[in-house]
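Let us practice reading a record.
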Amino acid sequence: MSDILKSICPATGDLVWEGTTATATEVQGAVAKARAAFADWSLRPFQVRADIALACADRIREKSESIALAISRDMGKPLWEARTEAGAMANKVTVSIQSYEDRTPTVITETTRLSHRPHGVMAVFGPFNFPGHLPNGHIIPSLLAGNTVVFKPSELTPQVAEIMVQCWTEAGLPDGVLNLVQGARETGAALLEADIDGLLFTGSAKTGTFFHKYFAGRPEILLALEMGGNNPLIIQDPVDVDAAADLAFMSGYITAGQRCTCARRLILPEGAFGDAVIDALQAKISKVKIGRWDIDDIFMGPVVSVGAAEAAENFEADLMSNGARSLSALNREAAFLRPGLIDVTGVKVADEELFAPLMQVIRVPNFEAAIAQANDTRFGLASGLICEDQTKWDYARPRLRAGIVNWNKPTTGAASTLPFGGPGLSGNHRPAAYYAADYCAWPQAGQVAESAVGPAMRGMSK
């Protein structure tokens, strides 16, 4: 029997969506539909699949305001920011088409042929923080490559998934090629147990490592895991203090700290310069506007739930009990958190990704110590250096162990024309974004000849 699934807006407490979860039988049925649709879809010419994707992008643009409203109401993201996500969803199509052509070419010579084939049925698990854009980044390249998809969005953000599937249907996608299953843990477990060929996931390291263990010993299942990071941001003199504080503020607190590339650790030099950066950050924290998603001039809304806000408070309290010093407290009200800043220099801190607007300040004696501190993590998604000394950038870039290394930009900045991912607990060496085409298709190589001519063989009597 299906359970009722509800979405409660964290900004207002209102019930904004209600539906039913997919049962194990319904999940198996969705996978069976995807399996039945695979042969026809995979054999269609690439341009046919691309044209449907382009038509879907048009539908997304037409429904962009509905998509943005669904994102904001489900997870509390400011409407201005949700609108940028809706725009990124539509733009993903042309980027993915170019990526597929660049990364998975067909190359034919007189004696050889290289082409690429889809895997089959791909399960896509979506996160709550970018409930449209991030699963979209798996779904589009999967469909372009000729795979079929079963999509399970986060149970915290179910609304936009229905609009996404509707856009594909209106664009002419054949029945069974993209299948939606709503639900929480039980629905996800049923999808893992079903007859899938690949799992594409964006989310926490805890969940991603569980998937990795679950499929241990099954190399036939393709896994692409993007699992976030405990990201460092280094600020060094010379740089304008206020500009540096602006970049740090954006790195740590955009989307209420709920981006996997948000800076979690702010690494500052000992002395007056580091003190000045902290003062500037504290001033910005005191002035930032926080509120409901439908207020025009807010910077950030709530975190995704009251439970998530309470977990952040507990994390902050644990740091304090271990000797950390609060510079700006989180100050929770329901699911809303004021950005927090806490000095953990010399304190033993768990190497974890906290999805909340809390940055940990670490003071270091020199630049080499800053690099060492930045790399002192099991993760490796994003890192950044704010400094106008080119020699320091040249020194830092090859030494920072992260898939995204930004200079005088927020750690949250990532280009759609570049790969997205990193080593360590940040993934399983299958970066997404422009490189998603790599894991959505496998290469098929061969030697060819127009006529059957036996090879010359030694030691054979005529």
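A brief commentary: Residues 79-103 form the longest helix (25 residues).
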